[in-house]
Amino acid sequence: MEAEYSPNGPAGYEHREVSIKVIVGSLVILALCVAVSCILMVVMFRVLHATTGRQPALTNLTRPGMVPPEPRLQVQPALQLENLRRHENEVLGTYGMDAQTGAVHIPIDKAMDLLLQRGLQNAGGKLPPPPPQGGSPVNSGY
Q1: Distance between CA atoms of 43 and 34, rounded to whole angstroms?
Q2: Around 7, how many Cα atoms within 13 Å sit in the side-chain half-sphere?
Q3: For the whole model, what pTM was predicted?
Q4: The pLDDT value given to residue 139
Q5: How far apart are CA 23 and CA 15, in angstroms?
Q6: Spatial contact of 103 and 94, defined as CB atoms under 8 Å apart
Q7: Given a cut of 70, is residue 26 above it in pLDDT?
Q8: Residue 92 in contact with residue 108, Cβ under 8 Å?
Q9: Confidence class of residue 4 from pLDDT cuts 50, 70 and 90?
């Protein structure tokens, strides 16, 4: 039987609790398992690539240059998006009036300046009453 642990004994570690052979053996086994797994994955990918690369595509969406069926809603989406943005910038950056509704619009920069000058108002055109000064806060029931 080994001697009991003594705090005044020689420096080192407790040999009865930790076995270096078990730790090194575990690390070697772990490294071998990782290496074998990596090799098996490489083999599996090569086999799958070789067997599935020759078959026809499962869907028509994978073929490049395929034209969608009629009706084609956007023939040139990039050009249409550019035209939309140009129109929006024109409407949002200039003065104007909607011919159908008669609504007048002003540029966003001018609207923001007016909002800073006048402040926000409620739908009735009157400012809301100021909050009560002093006193105790409203009891919320909690």
Answers
A1: 14
A2: 0
A3: 0.34
A4: 52
A5: 13
A6: no
A7: yes
A8: yes
A9: low
